[in-house]
Write a structure and sequence with these properties.
Rossmann fold; Helicase, Ruva Protein, domain 3; five-stranded parallel beta sheet
Length: 606
């Protein structure tokens, strides 16, 4: 029979000093033991596999240790420690609340509390997954937990603290366990490799630690699986093959292709990744993580956030040096949008490819964003003699610029604007990326760093540039706009009604009342149907703005019950047979012909 013991059990800590990544809990418990300020009830809460039950067992062992060390660690040599290590201690009771969650189980536990420890000072009760207890079990446990005997210590452990009732929480001393960081996990795995005689690459252990997601028990389970696969030699390739992790080289090659604007290579690398069996969504998320790491490498202060090996960190720094901040932020934005909408896309591969193609056009969009304002106001261009701007060949050969690569000629000039600061590095421009990726190429334009523009490209996004331009247009239009009166609005309103096709819609517009409040056209209607009909006329405001010459006019629609036309109620009258006959005869003259043909007479004439 096999004697193999998994690493999670074999290397389970026996002392507080051996607990990985939970120094704040270990130090607090040891100080409480030293100062004799030990509580009677503890609650250990945190994610799975971070050492909650392990710390509870160490605390239970040191409480009854006959020869504790000077720093209040268990000696692991006395009778009490030996009995605990062999699971034969009568002073320590462990209860799994996931399978013992009823009132009867808690009552049985309370009965055990009544008996004093046979040997030792304390009787310790460890309740794991305590959040699984029922409401009645919690209520039965309250009194004993609040006022236990002096020899009873309760240690509760849970992964879901929010499911525990407040009356239990208020009776416990709560310790929050943290997720174990990747460097701490790698260090622990390295120590295990040294004890087991295993040679492991640093990058391979980092992948194992990252895959564990902060749980050391998961990391040890993955480590055992890798050892079974690779033997005594653990390398990076074996780890990514066994764990189905995409190689870092793919991300580095992919970003290099994006920076070169090589769309063909981008699509080929993506196709190679899909052929290896990786999901497109997994790749997009991995690419976003890679771009995030490149952004982190931009600043020495944030370099510590990069949880990779030293060799890989150097590769990140080298690629980050040639990747502008604006490019990384825009690419991150595109990757995030792709991830959000991925599940709703019918053609998921095409959805991911479109996002990747847009990333390849980011730098071209930046050049377009800087080049367009420079052509919009030629009289304000300034040429730096030290850095001459040479027009590209495409502009020399063609006298007329392409419509998609040049800004509109009617763009407002900057004659009245304040001095503009020197252009800085461009920030993310997602809308320009969308325009360029749809086929609108700006041509052969010089790099963004060599072109002086009117607008500072250091804005947060293209939206801010558009907002600034719209604000300038509004300011210039306000100078020439005519005075706005209700007579002008009424004339435009009537003209719009005349061009409508349906008579019912015309009636709704004629019955509506209009008013002017500063720059707001207030429309009052009598029903929700009329309000919907007016809102569906999308060309209404554009028509009125052009008629009155005011582009800043806005519209508001209100429902006014006073405009509802109520028909006067008709008096009800009971008619006799003759009156009914006369009314029918007036309505339809053929009634008399019917009576004459069949010889009929009303009841009153008989």
């Amino acid at each position: 029979m096999s004697t193999f013991v998994v690493s999670a059990r074999k290397y389970r800590p026996n002392r507080f000093d051996e607990v990985v990544g939970q120094e704040h809990v270990s130090l607090t418990l040891k100080n409480a033991l030293q100062n004799d300020h030990l509580a009677h009830a503890f609650l250990f809460c945190g994610p799975r596999g971070v050492g909650k039950t392990t710390c509870a067992r160490i605390l239970a062992k040191v409480l009854n240790c006959q020869n504790p060390t000077s720093d209040f660690e268990p000696c692991n040599t006395c009778d009490s420690c030996d009995a605990f290590n062999e699971n034969a201690s009568f002073n320590i009771t462990e209860l799994d609340a996931a399978s013992n969650n009823s009132v009867e189980h808690i009552r049985a536990l309370i009965e055990q509390v009544r008996f004093q420890p046979q040997k030792g000072k304390y009787k310790v009760f460890i309740i794991d997954e305590v959040h699984m207890l029922s409401q009645q079990a919690f209520n039965a446990f309250l009194k004993t937990l609040e006022e236990p005997p002096p020899y009873a210590i309760f240690i509760l452990a849970t992964t879901e603290k929010h499911k525990i009732i407040p009356t239990i929480l208020s009776r416990c001393q709560i310790f929050d366990f943290r997720r174990i960081q990747v460097p701490n996990m790698v260090k622990h795995l390295t120590e295990i490799c040294a004890q087991e005689g295993i040679e492991a690459e640093s990058d391979a252990l980092h992948i194992v630690a990252q895959k564990a997601d902060g749980a050391l028990r998961d990391a040890l389970s993955i480590f055992d699986r890798i050892v079974s696969f690779s033997g005594k030699q653990i390398n990076y390739d074996d780890v990514i093959t066994n764990l189905n992790v995409l190689d870092y080289d793919y991300y580095f090659k992919f970003v290099d292709a994006l920076l070169r604007e090589d769309v063909s290579q981008v699509l080929l690398i993506f196709d190679d990744i899909l052929r290896k069996g990786f999901d497109a969504e997994l790749f997009v998320n991995g690419l976003a993580e890679h771009l995030r790491n490149l952004l982190v490498c931009k600043d020495e202060q944030t370099l510590s956030l990069l949880e990779v090996s030293d060799g890989l960190r150097q590769r990140y720094k080298e690629q980050a040096a040639v990747s502008p901040n604006s490019y990384l932020l825009t690419a991150l934005n595109l990757a995030n949008d792709c991830d959000i909408n991925y599940k709703m896309a019918r053609n998921k591969r095409l959805h991911a490819e479109m996002a990747l193609i847009k990333m390849a056009h980011i730098n071209r969009a930046f050049r377009l964003a800087q080049h367009a304002p420079a052509e919009a106001s030629p009289e304000k261009k300034t040429v730096d003699n030290s850095q001459p701007i040479v027009p590209p060949p495409s502009q020399v050969e063609h006298s007329q610029p392409e419509p998609d690569s040049a800004a509109p000629k009617e763009a407002p000039t900057a004659a009245t604007k304040e001095p503009v600061p020197e252009p800085k590095e461009a920030e993310p421009i997602t809308q320009q990326v969308n325009s360029v990726s749809n086929g609108h190429s700006p041509g052969n334009i010089q790099p963004a760093s060599k072109i002086a523009t009117k607008h500072s490209i250091a804005k947060v996004s293209l939206d801010s540039l558009i907002a600034e331009a719209q604000e300038d247009v509004v300011k210039e239009e306000e100078v020439e706009q005519t005075e706005l009166t209700i007579e002008h609005i009424q004339t435009a309103w009537t003209a719009f009604i005349e061009q409508l096709d349906k008579d019912t819609i015309k009636g709704i517009f004629r019955n509506a009342k209009i008013d002017l409040q500063e720059k707001t056209l207030v429309i009052k209607v009598g029903s929700g149907l009329a309000e919907s009909a007016i809102r569906e006329e999308l060309s209404l405001m554009d028509f009125i703005r052009k008629q009155v010459g005011r582009s800043d006019l806005i519209m508001k629609i209100h429902k006014d019950d006073s405009l509802v036309q109520k028909a006067a109620p008709k008096p009800k009258k009971m008619l006799n047979a003759k009156e009914k006959f006369l009314l029918m005869n007036e309505t339809n003259p053929k009634v008399r012909e019917l009576i004459d043909r069949f010889g009929l007479r009303p009841d009153d004439e008989r």
